Amino acid sequence: MNIFEHLGHQHRIIGTTLDALHGYAAKVEAGVDPSHHDLTRFVLFFREYAHQRHRDAEEEVLFPLLTKHGFSMTVGPLAHIRQQHDEEGLLLVRLMKVAARRNLWSRDEASELCAVAREIVHFERVHLEKENELLFPKAQEQLTDEELEQAAKGLAKLEKKHGDAAWLEKLASELIADYVPKKD
Ligand SMILES: [Fe+2]
Ligand SMILES: [Fe+2]
Question: What's the topology of domain 3-179?
Fold first, then answer.
């Protein structure tokens, strides 16, 4: 898998897990009380997989290679994406705060949970689309074979640092199975 296939694979998993978070929030909104433990599992997935590992693959592996092709880290598209990653972190902190509550959700807390979950789903979908449609195709045109090799080494180094992601992808597939509404 080259870096673009790797990032695309992660985007697909993140995208479908967003559908699951949307399904979870819809249940809360409908007055069903889904597993609170699963909210913690959503937080875990988005923090560790999307906000940590996926962001590192973009910011630490892909972006430095793009700076050799006229992209800047401090202005333009890469700066914008990096700023969005910071915003993503803050949205996830809001979700963590709801997940960290000791007691069952009050009515107000349930609506706070739905509001932040929907904000995350919307924000992330727009973010993924921007990268898929605008950034990655441009980046793909630029990288040389040698740089793709460097990217593969960078990803391997990250995997060594964070460990294998199979458990997170399994977690995502369970949340997807439980919360993405089935099509008839
Ligand atoms: Fe990103
Ligand atoms: Fe991304």
Answer: Four Helix Bundle (Hemerythrin (Met), subunit A) (1.20.120)
